[in-house]
């Protein structure tokens, strides 16, 4: 579904990585770890077309991102649910409307009325539906971001530090949701520092762990 | 253009994505209202001068008259002499003495139908129809003075020619003003739209991240600006039309001033201003948005 082939990325003059390859197949479950600043967020942005590789090739659903126009990227993003590290909400809209944004921009907002309430209940935010994003706690924002990422029932879910601000119990619930989505055949890619989360996941699903360090992407072994 | 239907139908939840705050919206409403107000006056000026020019040039195309005032027994002879002179005057298409009946008809409004024409010393009128550039009035007067002492040439058309030219010029100025008003409005709305797009770059970014297409994002801005321009222009045009409707009447003295206004169906013209303003806003916001979205990719 998403393939990276010998991808390099350079910010200005600073080369972050030079030769990365990775494939997200349907039903796969990947963790991406590595030190802060290694380029995890950058790698994820390459996967949903926010950044275009400096060299090499990124294919999303079979299309080379370098050759996609903005509308094609937009349509591809509707099939990829993303939890951004900095959440990315519209601060003037209530949380519930933010969660429903992907449906709104694709002209499917009637569907929001069907599952928005259930989804908010599932991430434990039923009571905060009408609050503005700046009025939510960090963890509440992250849960809202996860709800938004899955509301379109995407084929791929990409999450950047989804459990950075939430307590262990809530991270377990988010993990369970992601595992459920994965069992429905969706590809999941999670960037995280949280080794406990990775360990917990490994008991539920055959997760692969990739470590990004010094511009290299390596499969982490059984030490986790 | 699918943009049109979405402007009219709209989608309240999509429109909410662009925050309502900011001066750009007020700027759009205000400038549309002001421009529409001015446009009503420019339009009234153009239409009024057009009517004036039409009336004057119609009269110009009409006739001059030659009046023969002489003792009763000489009128017939002088009339004939005058007609002879006129027949050989370049620029005179035809010349014809009015019959008694025609003269009575002309006088009737003033003296009633029972006027005893025969017993009154009424001058004879000769109707002259000009052709080409008309005749040389000074030369004609000199010749008439020599041959027809009782003739008075009533050359009432001459002084109108420069007025018609002035009215034509005024009308063109009115239309130029309308075009300038439209252009200034387009420029202001473009600026306001660009400011709104810059102020909302984070909103645009989020909309993109959740899969919004350029058309969807542009639509949210275009709809807002088009509707505001339409509403502002509606307000301005209504105020302008009311201003003209309630211009005080001062019939005789201020002939031209009170002529400034709309007559009959021309009152429908101000109604065209808000849709035109909406169109201007639609085109300028859409252009600004599409260009902006291309840059900010
Ligand atoms: N827009 C940018 N322009 C220039 N440099 C950038 C930009 N974004 C990130 N970088 C640099 O690229 C490097 C990798 O950033 P990235 O956000 O991908 O790291 P990360 O692995 O996600 O880190 P963290 O775990 O802290 O989230 C960092 O050194 C960062 O300073
Ligand atoms: Mg990061």
Lay out the secondary structure.
The complex is a heterodimer of chains A (224) and B (297).
Chain A: E1 2-11, E2 14-24, E3 29-33, H1 40-47, E4 55-60, E5 63-64, H2 70-77, E6 80-83, H3 95-99, H4 101-105, H5 110-122, H6 138-150, E7 156-160, H7 168-183, E8 187-191, H8 195-204, E9 208-213, E10 216-219
Parallel strand pairs in A: 3-8, 3-9, 6-7, 7-8
Antiparallel strand pairs in A: 1-2, 1-4, 4-5, 9-10
Helix pairs in contact in A: 7-8
Chain B: H1 2-9, H2 12-15, H3 23-60, E1 63-68, H4 72-87, E2 92-97, H5 100-111, E3 124-130, H6 137-147, E4 151-154, H7 160-199, H8 201-209, H9 214-245, H10 255-259, H11 269-295
Antiparallel strand pairs in B: 1-3, 1-4, 2-3
Helix pairs in contact in B: 1-9, 3-7, 3-9, 3-11, 4-6, 7-9, 7-11, 9-11
The complex binds adenosine-5'-triphosphate (ATP) and magnesium ion.
**Low-confidence runs of chain B:** none
DSSP E strands of chain A, number: 10
Strand content of chain B: 5-15%
Bound molecules: adenosine-5'-triphosphate, magnesium ion
| Contiguous runs where pLDDT drops below 50 for at least 5 residues of chain A | none
Distance between the termini of chain A: 27 Å
Radius of gyration of chain B: 32 Å
Mean pLDDT of chain B: 81
CATH architecture of the largest domain in chain A: 3-Layer(aba) Sandwich
Strand arrangement in the largest pleated sheet of chain A: 6-7-8-3-9-10
Mean pLDDT of chain A: 89
């Amino acid at each position: 579904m998403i393939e990276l082939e010998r991808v390099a990325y350079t910010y200005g003059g600073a080369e972050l990585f030079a030769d990365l390859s990775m494939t997200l197949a349907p039903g796969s479950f990947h963790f991406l770890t590595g030190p802060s600043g290694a380029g995890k967020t950058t790698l994820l942005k390459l996967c949903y077309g926010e950044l275009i590789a400096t060299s090499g090739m990124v294919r999303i659903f079979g299309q080379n991102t370098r050759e996609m126009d903005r509308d094609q990227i937009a349509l591809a993003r509707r099939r990829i649910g993303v939890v951004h590290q900095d959440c990315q909400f519209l601060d003037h809209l209530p949380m519930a409307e933010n969660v429903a944004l992907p449906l709104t921009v694709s002209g499917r907002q009637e569907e929001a009325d069907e599952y928005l309430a259930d989804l908010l209940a599932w991430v434990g935010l039923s009571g905060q539906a009408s609050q503005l994003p700046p009025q939510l706690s960090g963890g509440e924002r992250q849960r809202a971001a996860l709800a938004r990422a899955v509301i379109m029932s995407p084929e791929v879910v990409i999450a950047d530090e989804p459990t950075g601000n939430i307590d262990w119990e809530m991270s377990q619930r988010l993990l369970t949701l992601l595992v459920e989505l994965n069992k429905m055949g969706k590809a999941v890619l999670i960037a995280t520092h949280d080794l406990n989360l990775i360990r917990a996941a490994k008991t539920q699903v055959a997760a692969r762990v990739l470590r990004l360090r010094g511009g290299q992407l390596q499969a982490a072994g059984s030490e986790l | 253009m699918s943009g049109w239907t979405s402007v009219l139908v709209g989608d309240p939840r999509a429109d909410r994505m662009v925050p309502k705050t900011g001066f750009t919206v007020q700027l759009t409403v205000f400038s549309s209202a002001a421009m529409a107000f001015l446009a009503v006056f420019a339009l009234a000026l153009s239409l009024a001068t057009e009517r004036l020019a039409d009336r004057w040039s119609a009269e110009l195309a009409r006739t001059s008259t030659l009046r023969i005032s002489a003792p009763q027994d000489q009128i017939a002879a002088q009339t004939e002499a005058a007609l002879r002179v006129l027949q050989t005057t370049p620029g005179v298409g035809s010349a014809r003495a009015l019959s008694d009946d025609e003269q009575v008809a002309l006088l009737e409004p003033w003296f009633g139908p029972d006027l005893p024409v025969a017993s009154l010393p009424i001058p004879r009128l000769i109707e002259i129809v000009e052709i080409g550039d008309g005749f040389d009035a000074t030369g004609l007067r000199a010749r008439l003075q020599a041959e027809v002492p009782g003739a008075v040439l009533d050359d009432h058309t001459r002084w109108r020619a420069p007025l018609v030219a002035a009215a034509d010029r005024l009308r063109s100025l009115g239309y130029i003003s309308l075009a300038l008003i439209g252009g200034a409005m387009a420029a202001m709305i473009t600026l306001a739209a660009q400011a709104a797009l810059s102020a909302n770059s984070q909103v645009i970014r989020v909309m993109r991240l959740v899969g919004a297409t350029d058309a969807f994002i542009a639509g949210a801005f275009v709809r807002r600006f088009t509707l505001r321009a339409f509403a502002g222009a509606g307000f301005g045009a209504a105020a302008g039309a009311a201003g003209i409707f309630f211009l005080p009447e001062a019939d005789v003295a201020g002939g031209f001033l009170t002529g400034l206004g709309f007559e009959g169906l021309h009152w429908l013209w101000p109604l065209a201003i808000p849709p035109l303003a909406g169109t201007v806003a639609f085109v300028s916001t859409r252009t600004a948005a599409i260009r902006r979205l291309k840059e900010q990719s």
